[in-house]
Amino acid sequence: MSEITYDELDDALGRFQKALENNLNDYYERAWLRGGAQNHLVYDSEGVFFAFVPPELYRSEPVRELEFDTETFNAITDAHQNQAAIWKFDVDRPTGYADALTHDYFPYFIRYPEHWRAALYHARLSMMYLLQHGMTPTEALDYWALDTGPGSLTSNQNVDRWHASRGVDREAVYKTRRQAKDKLGDDESRPYYEEQNIEIGDLE
After folding, report:
1. Could you tell me whether strands 106-111 and 40-43 are parallel, antiparallel, or unpaired per DSSP bridges?
2. Please, are residues 155 and 170 in contact by the beta-carbon 8 Å criterion?
3. Are 81 and 91 in contact (CB under 8 A)?
């Protein structure tokens, strides 16, 4: 096979990045909640590094669907390792990432999708709103987890998961939730960003 060109690599990197972005939720859930490898490394305002075993990543469904040959995948992985080196990761380089008989993990950078950044921004605004109503951090966190947004945890099963994650019993969670609701009073249905005329799409 001829050497991959700059334009071909640029196109492949974009498609690869999109595939990783589309599976970012799954990568986080596996690392944090489903007993997977603790492969979440470091993040900034633009994205996050996850560590993957290159042959396993190459064979995973999101990447396999891109139908990259091994040379293209190796070039993509080299590009990510170059970026990791800028972050001062100590990166050892095998001769071929896709076929290497190794279980070593290598860092890959995943940009936050726009909707992910908007969600982070909204979560931050929500916490600011709750804290400005005099809630303690614990009250704000329990109320935010149990009562706000489409991901709220109001079912019994999810409440059990939440208080277990917090390391307290169910009644302790319900107590702080009640205290939070009392402090919100009539403002419970009025989000912070509406009160301050803030546009959710404004991420700066």
Report:
1. unpaired
2. no
3. yes
The answer to whether 53 and 104 are in contact (CB under 8 A) is: yes
- HSE-CB at 175 with a 13 A cutoff on CA atoms is 5
pLDDT tens-digit readout, 124-181: 888 898 999 999 999 999 888 887 655 455 555 678 888 888 889 989 988 998 999 9
Q: Cα dihedral angle (158, 139, 24, 154), rounded to 10 degrees?
A: 20
Hey, CA dihedral for 28, 66, 83, 85, is it positive or negative? positive
Measure the CA–CA gap between 168 and 160, rounded to whole angstroms. 10
Between residues 76 and 46, the one the model is more confident about = 76
* Of residues 71, 74, 63, the one with CA closest to residue 15: 63
- 136 vs 143: CA distance, rounded Å: 11
Alpha helices per DSSP H over the chain: 6-22, 24-32, 54-59, 61-64, 70-86, 114-131, 137-147, 156-166, 170-184, 192-195
Q: What are phi and psi of 8, to 5 degrees?
A: -65, -40
| pLDDT tens for each residue of 43-53 | 788 899 998 98
DSSP 150: T
